[in-house]
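Observation: inputs received (chain + zinc ion).
Thought: call the complex predictor directly.
Action: predict_structure
Action Input:
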Amino acid sequence: MTSAKTRTLLVISAHAGDFVWRAGGAIALAADRGERAKVVCLSFGERGESAKAWRAGRTLDEIKAIRREEAQNAAATLGAEIEFFDAGDYPLVESPELVDRLVRVYRELEPDVVLTHPPADPYNGDHPAAARMALQARVLAQAAGYDAPGEPLGAPPVFFFEPHQPEQCDFKPDVLLDITPAFDRKRKAMECLPAQQHMWDYYTDLAKRRGVQLRRNAGPNLGLPHYTMGEAYMRLYPQVTDVLA
Ligand SMILES: [Zn+2]
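Observation:
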């Protein structure tokens, strides 16, 4: 008797905090459903997203250790595994070796869903670099002749999570995910990242706004107060369905 494979979510994040602010709700919801959720952090965000630690006089190695521990705590809070590639940030340099490592992750995990950064971000070159490598690795993992262990990958849908300045990144939500039941854990995961404390309330407020928009798109808009928290995503590939809904 064969049992159905556990559904798996793969999140590819340039820096240690990105997956928390932008996809923490989706990760916690997947874990709640008993799915396997895995985060690959290409770097710790040690140079570009750790200003507080630099100003406190920490060394590069200390900052990497701090950010690693914070991200591990955040991932555990959300119910996800986490793997660090320690590829460096500012800049995160794209390489065939990093793409190959990602191919191996795809082949091993056989994800049902992939989350990563959108491919444009004029404020942060590491985010598009992570997205390009995530997408290239997905395509290579699909190739029967690509030399990596495992079977060729299927076609897991790719969702881009919301960047910090969505308009400048050509980000227009076409999926609004209701993360209300998971928001408390997302907030706790955010609070595992004191290096970026200024983001906690910002991403709480964003979840409220996306929650209001979610309800506006979900049914009768009576203008009554409600508590709904949301995360916004964009799909890269068409939705495949036999029923329009
Ligand atoms: Zn980042």
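Thought: report the result.
Final Answer: Residues 8 and 86 are 23 Å apart (CA to CA). The two ends are 34 Å apart (CA to CA).
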